[in-house]
Specification:
Length: 77
Amino acid sequence: MLYNDNPSLETLDFPHEIQTLLIKFDVLFQPPQTLPPTKATYHHIHLLPQSVPVNVCPYRYLHFQKHDIELQVEMML
């Protein structure tokens, strides 16, 4: 992330096109100072009354992938 205490955008080793975009949208790369503003509408998923979560079997995967999948799940938890 780019913060005010980092070197200026011109001194970073980015292509000229990227530097131009970073400078143009500099406001987007500043750390937040306040809570997010309230929104007119918030996302909502409309469910049917008395509906329950879908219960399906997990995806099948190859046996040699088991270790990698378990490591990824562990990292996400």
